[in-house]
Amino acid sequence: MKAIIPVAGYGTRLKPHTDRYQKTLLPVAGKLALDHIIEPLLEAGINDLCFIVGHFKEQVIEHVKKYEGNFSFVEQKERLGLGHAILTGLEESDEPTLVQLGDTIFDVNIADFISSEENVIGIYGVDDPTRFGVVDISDDKINGFYEKHPNPPSNLAISGLYFFNNQNILKKAIEELITKQITTNNEYQITDALQLMVQNGEPFKAYDTPDIYDVGVPETFLYSNRKLLQSQHDEFPTSKIIEPVFIGKNCIIEESIIGPYVTIMDNCSITNSKIEDSIILENSSIDDQSIIGKIAAKDGTESC
Ligand code: UTP
What we know:
Blueprint: E1 2-7, E2 27-28, E3 31-32, H1 33-43, E4 48-53, H2 57-63, E5 70-75, H3 82-89, E6 97-100, E7 104-106, H4 110-113, E8 119-125, E9 133-138, E10 141-147, E11 156-164, H5 167-179, H6 190-199, E12 204-208, E13 212-214, H7 218-228, E14 240-241, E15 245-247, E16 252-254, E17 257-258, E18 262-264, E19 269-271, E20 274-276, E21 278-280, E22 285-287, E23 290-292, E24 295-297, E25 302-303
Parallel strand pairs: 1-4, 1-6, 4-5, 8-12, 14-17, 15-18, 16-19, 17-20, 18-21, 19-22, 20-23, 21-24
Antiparallel strand pairs: 2-3, 6-11, 7-13, 8-11, 9-10, 24-25
The structure holds uridine 5'-triphosphate.
Uridine 5'-triphosphate binds next to strand 1 and helix 3.
């Protein structure tokens, strides 16, 4: 089966890092977000991966070369929203497809998720449903979809993992959005296409995906790092390491306190510093600083 992974977005909420990197290529818990996405798909036997690329597209193409699979790259020429991005990867085919957002990591049984005859939408409970695409359900049947609605019918948000049993039906629904110029916040939203499909009688099932790790904004990015982190590092005799901590290759760590919940990527130098609950991007050189609750790069001042 094919999986579509949209990774074209600008990632403005993770600036300044997304001025240099595609958002999905930022590290969380010792590997890049995209690795956390690709590896479970390949393990579940889904080798046919279609990446929707745009912002820093060549970085994505280069990065996935380390995997073996049937990979394709389709360029989304304009950033017109997630619905539009997914449309660029859909074919006029009755084959099923999985869609996973490029900024959302799941701990989920993929084989079970795609085993349904119906369309399946991953959902999870959120505190403020007005910021999300939300479903109205009875038992696990979805009756309606609401994108960033002021009075959402539930606190069950769409998590970013979707299974469509016939990609052509989804394709037609997104094309209808575009023809009728149906937008939310000036973007063609997948949620609005799903609502058209429900109105046309397409059956949808909700699937609980509580173990979701969103890497779209700094706060949830650091939460994901805390939750997914597994300790892995060399010994650094002059420094104190408070687990869990991941430290990549070729790092110099001297006279520092590192941890808990820290990822430091390759080729970094950290001296006389305290780093806690943070992610340090590759090739950073940090001296005499205290970095807490940040994604930081270069000399540590480039952060969010
Ligand atoms: P987001 O809207 O969260 O990503 O889309 P973004 O636009 O990059 O982020 P901000 O709002 O500027 O901070 C979720 C996923 O869909 C992709 C993004 O790359 C991300 O993986 N996407 C979104 C596209 O591929 N194209 C789009 O037009 C919009």
